[in-house]
Amino acid sequence: MSILSFIVNFIYPPRCAVCNTFLDQRGLICKECLAKLRELKPPFCKICSVPFYGEKEDIHICENCLRKRPQFTSLSSPYIYEGTASIAVRLFKFQKKATTGKLLGTLLKEYSLSWWKKIKQKKDKYVIVPVPLTPKRLRQRGFNQSLVLSRYVSKSLKLPVDYLSLRRTKETLPQSLLSPEERKKNVRDAFQVKGDNLKKKRIILIDDVATTGNTLNECAKVLKKAGAIEVRCLVFARAV
Ligand SMILES: [Zn+2]
Ligand SMILES: [Zn+2]
Q: What is the rounded distance in angstroms from the CA atom of residue 80 to the CA atom of residue 240?
């Protein structure tokens, strides 16, 4: 530890980015909060990652995906949206807590490395695209949480981020407040692609949370319409 960081740690001892307790060593999260971070583990649907009961090695497609194949190739996530993951996402989004953003970004960045290794396609055409906010929401919040996460993943995978081509043109209600039918309607025609930067590209679509996957599916639909070859979704946490 350098003298400077020793002094900084002395004056501002590190705190947990989730519960704010002091940490006895450097880091972003305390042991208690870390223990309440639940990993999304197999067996789960090989497209949308919804978990199911069975053997760990089971490879299968869930009923929803069988009935109506999503527009995206896959939806992957390191954590289940509950406990620490849901508290942290809300702290970051609504209270603009920067250290929590750093925590989420760092965790997603780590996960993205092992995720990336499993992808067999040629890797020269991938572009990272964050799920956008409307200009009005962006002004209110001051930042797009998905773009913050995208920058972390961009660093680890060494891929460019395109945050201008995909636009959100319609204000939508929070998906969590709506019934399944309303959720589909809510995000319908809410996105647009501008220009042809994403034509013939493979997209890594990034968001903080996936509830039903409807938002990601709608984005994937317009991205493919605009000429993208495939869309793979990566989110910090997935509701189950
Ligand atoms: Zn904590
Ligand atoms: Zn599925």
A: 7
Q: Which ligand is nearest to the CA of 44?
A: 2
> Bridge partners of 192?
167
Condensed to tens digits (0 to 9), the pLDDT of residues 171-228 reads 888 777 888 888 888 888 899 999 999 999 999 999 999 988 999 999 999 999 999 9
Quick one: which ligand is closest to 91's CA?
A: 1
Say if residue 84 is in the same domain as residue 26. Answer: no
Measure 29 CA to ligand 2 centroid, in angstroms. 31
Residues 60 and 120 in one domain: yes
Same domain, 198 and 138: yes
Nearest ligand atom owner, CA of 31: 1
The residues whose Cβ lies within 5 A of ligand 2, an ion, are 45, 47-48, 62, 65
- Looking at the structure, do residues 58 and 91 belong to the same domain, yes or no? yes
Q: What length is written for the chain?
A: 240
Contact 239, 79 (CB under 8 A): no
Beta strands 202-210 and 230-238 are parallel
The ligand minimizing its distance to the Cα of 36 is: 1
Tally of domains within the chain: 2
Host domain of residue 224: 40-238
* In a shared domain, residues 73 and 160: yes
62 Cα to the center of ligand 2, angstroms: 4
pLDDT in tens, 87-116: 999 999 999 889 999 999 999 999 999 999
d(CA 104, CA 17): 10
- Asked if residue 26 and residue 131 are part of one domain, the reply reads no
